[in-house]
Amino acid sequence: MPSIGYHASHEQFPPRDLLRWVRRAEQAGFDAAMCSDHFHPWSGEQGQSGHAWSWLGAAMATTALPFGVVNAPVGRYHPAVIAQAAATLAQMFEGRFWIAAGSGEALNETITGETWPAKDLRNRRLFEAVQVMRALWRGEEVTHRGSITVERARLYTRPEQAPPIFAAALSPETARWVGGWADGLITISMPRDKLCAVLDAFRESAGDKPVRLQVKLAYAASEEDALAGAHRQWRTNVFEGALSEELRTPADFEAAAAFVRPEDVRRAVRVSADVQRHLAWLQEDLELGFDQLLLHNVHPAQEAFIDAFGERVLPALRSG
């Protein structure tokens, strides 16, 4: 039976609201959840920046759902600190926590004033960070001097089972590289040919490791409302990684998105007021072999989305 989760977007919505909505999602039949981990939103229109790790403890304590978090364990964070935070959640909520690790975006990681590295160095320090975290979860004392530095660190509170590390990848090149060391892949919805290329590349090096998909969608009461809301909230998120990973402030993203039209947002977001259309898209995703779909409605109508999909989409997906 496929797993269908709810994505909590900290850059878009206040943490108090997200806590209420993730509980509502569980009651509606969603069986998993994940959240973003931002310091800045992508735009002033989104306008939020709740701390993911503070929120995760509350969310996991008040639901029974497994949770993931999209996180760069380098940059504004240090991997030993992320290893400690993840170990604490995994120890309190055994078997319910996982990380989607990525190399980060300048939007969040440059707030410390450090130089923003080139992509190859960002990948290198991500790989080193993952090795450091896994060693700490094994109970080792870790000293590491490379693109990141760790001096005699040891975790004393550890879960019985280390949390899985899924790698976030948006291109075949990155997917092929992470397949050798990640526990699984998470990517985002994109045109089918591009999505298949990412999946095929990952499977070349990863075999049958699990694959998860974060689905970007816009659902509202009408097609016009769905498209308008997607444009207001997500027009800053239609760019390729070569640009989106380099821009440093919400104002930079707003300037880049000044000429993005509502119709342009459809390239990155599945826009429809018809739940049957969304159902058909999701069924196509499952046919590609994804183990879990994590649904992110970029439109503010979160409660309507949760209720409609819980009643009409989730049962149909699970019935085959």
TrEMBL record:
The keyword Membrane does not apply. InterPro entries: F420-G6PD/mer, F420_G6P_DH-rel, Luciferase-like_dom, Luciferase-like_sf, Non-F420_Flavin_OxRdtase. Pfam families: Bac_luciferase. Keywords: Oxidoreductase. GO terms for molecular function: oxidoreductase activity, acting on paired donors, with incorporation or reduction of molecular oxygen. Residues 8-291 form the Luciferase-like domain. This is LLM class F420-dependent oxidoreductase. It comes from Vulcaniibacterium thermophilum.
